[in-house]
Design a protein that fits this description.
Number of helices: 18
Strand order of the largest sheet: 2-9-10-13-14-15-18-19
Oligomer: single chain
Structural class: alpha/beta
CATH class of the largest domain: Alpha Beta
Largest sheet: 8 strands, mixed
Helix content: 40-55%
Length: about 500
Amino acid sequence: MNVLLLSMPDSFEHMPPAAVRMPNGALTSLAGNIDPHHRVAVADLILVQRSVRETVVRLVRELDADVVGLSIMTFQRRTAGRIIDLVRSLRPGVKIVVGGYDPSLAPEAYQNMGVDFLVRSEGEITFRELLRAMEQGSDFHQICGLSYNAGGNWVHNPARAPHKLEDSEIRLPNRKARVLKGYTLMGRPVDVIETSRGCTYDCSFCSIIEMRGRNFFTYSFDRVLTDIRDARDHGARTIFLVDDNITLNVRRFEALCEAIIAAGLNKIDYFVQAMTSAIANHGETLAPLMRRAGFRYVFLGIENILESDLEFLKASAKNSERTNGQTTGNATLKAIDYLHRNGMYVVGGLIVGSPGDTQESIEANLEFARRYVDWPYIQHPTPYPRTPMTKDFRDQGLIMNERLEEYDGTTAVVRTQHLDAEEVEFMRWKAERWMKVQHIPAALRHDPTFVLFKGWKLFFHTFRGSSLRSLLGLESQREVFERYRQIRRGEREYV
């Protein structure tokens, strides 16, 4: 069969395509795990935001697709529906499969969208078995993790247990299946790999636990190193480790750094997500080791600097510093210090706009970001399907916006008990633009070619909505903000 796998073009505000075009690792993993006699193409539509319709039409016709699969997040649902309609108009008999966070957590939303199959949670084995059943004309009822349309009635098979990753059943990604080019991070060719899956924490804003339960499974280092080499051989010079929580097992992460060094793969730049507690409590030995292994940017899950907000986010434990087994305070400053002392940049992940937030509490977090992080990644709490946070916000009547295309993390869709959603977003937007400017000297040192030749695109993206009048102080920042919001709404029209 001919299989076309698509990721959606919708992008996060903090990941402007001028600077970040990250591949969807799930799709190349699916492509690597179907039977090899199928013809498969992977297309990340983030690479063609201005020509989505034309690209989909071309690929469906060129591949003569029998099956089209879409990977979807909640804020991409509307775009996915439009692409499904487009594919149906081109090939009425095509089989359409959806998967990813949103279909897994809100399968009911897809039952009237022209979808034939829905893959819940991990997809490699489920999708492989689905294609085999389609090819053989056999029944689908024994395929765990699959939902399917049976003559207008949806059948939801039992869940598939998360794969423990200890054997070779999940094969390496198939990067050769990609049919679009141009994955970059700050001008450098980029790819993604995973070394583990899962997390055992229960943060209220996170969908991972709802997707797969509380667990943590790991790949062997041999497989990880082979995957890194494959990404490198396909052109990557920067690699983003997309693990849900790679620092959950610090000793394993240290051993991975040592394995990367021993394999001579530390000439690559690595970008990783990490817990503040892990870095703070082990940073004296871990941070220098990370730097020798090639780590340059660390996305630090700070979440919030106020204990009351951390309690709402259920993120206190992973942000605690411990001494002799006792909690002794917030780990954030110590973690940042270890990373900076070892020449790494901190991408500061914070969340502002929790129910109890006031203007003063939000400003405290913004001021912290100004002083201590290199690149801000500040978001608003967003009620994604089935997360504990969503129930809390609904119970308190704080959700102000049901337009899912705006559930992108940087559009405030909930109010606090003290502030309107728009005010929360305005505070973050106004402060964050100038924080990004502060990182230009560091970015120039690390990526001089990109900053000198493409940095202007990032600058215009950051300050879109501004005008000569606003620069001269002849109109208020509120007017600029409203113009920015209108531009952002227009950007979401991809199809």
